[in-house]
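Input record, target 12 of the design panel.
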């Protein structure tokens, strides 16, 4: 299931601590990619996604990651 796009869920998102997350993402206030859409920024996919450590990932029983790169349809 696609996570709800809510402020509460945005607060729980740990993308801001991820090595893939960039200054561009920060400028665009991008977060909660799994509940919204992928990033409009160019991102380095060779770095490690940390979605697996996120409470949202656990709560919604998500299986994947790199939602900033590939849109999650749910
Ligand atoms: S699962 Fe990933 S994209 Fe979704 S809220 Fe957590 S860190 Fe952000
Ligand atoms: S979706 Fe995954 S790879 Fe992208 S910024 Fe969030 S934690 Fe990092």
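The sequence produced for target 12 reads:
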């Amino acid at each position: 299931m696609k996570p709800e796009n809510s402020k509460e869920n945005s607060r729980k998102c740990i993308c801001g601590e991820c090595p893939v997350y960039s200054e561009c993402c920060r400028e665009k206030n991008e977060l909660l990619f799994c509940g919204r859409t992928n990033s409009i920024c160019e991102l380095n996919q060779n770095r490690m996604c940390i979605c697996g450590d996120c409470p949202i990932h656990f709560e919604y029983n998500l299986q994947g990651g790199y939602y900033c790169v590939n849109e999650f349809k749910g």
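Residues 15, 18, 20-21, 33, 49-51, 65-68 surround iron/sulfur cluster (ligand 2) (CB under 6 Å).
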